[in-house]
Amino acid sequence: MATFKREFNFDDKFMVKVSNNIKKYRLKAGITQEQLAVDVGKSYDFIRRLEYKKGAIGCSVDTLYKISVVLGITMDKFFE
Fold first, then answer.
1. Is 48 inside any structural domain?
2. Which residue has the higher pLDDT, 12 or 17?
3. Do the domain assignments include residue 9?
4. CB burial class (10 A; 0-12, 13-18, 19+) of residue 44?
5. How far from the centroid of its chain's Cα atoms is residue 6's Cα?
6. Radius of gyration of the chain measured on its C-alpha atoms
7. 39 burial class (0-12, 13-18, 19+ CB within 10 angstroms)?
8. Which residue, 15, 29, 52, 57, has most beta carbons within 10 Å?
9. In angstroms, how far is CA 8 from the centroid of its own chain?
10. By the 8 A CB rule, do 68 and 78 touch?
11. In terms of residue numbers, what domain contains 24?
């Protein structure tokens, strides 16, 4: 059985999009970075870096899910 590598074009900057959308929906919900941090069980510094480092740091799917619940949106909104 032969295998081959398929070609894919991955967006290397997808975390920039996620980062921008976290901030956008957080502001839309009227939630501070401090409150978001408390609600998802992360430090304020983590949330601050997640929003302002523009993809330089990432987060787990678990954390992304918690953020989406707190902000009242579905996870797909982070990738638009």
1. yes
2. 17
3. no
4. middle
5. 28
6. 15
7. middle
8. 15
9. 22
10. yes
11. 14-79
The tokens 């982070």 sit on which residue? 78
DSSP letter at 52 equals H
| pLDDT tens-digit readout, 51-78 | 988 767 888 999 999 999 999 999 999 9
Residues 19-29, buried b or exposed e (16+ Cβ, 10 A)? bebbbebbeee
* Per-residue pLDDT, 1: 66
Which of 36, 43, 32 is CA-nearest to residue 67?
Answer: 36
Structural domain count of the chain = 1
Model confidence, pTM: 0.84
Question: What are the phi and psi torsion angles at 40 (to 5°)?
Answer: -100, 0
Mean pLDDT of the chain: 91
The CATH number of the domain holding residue 49 is 1.10.260.40
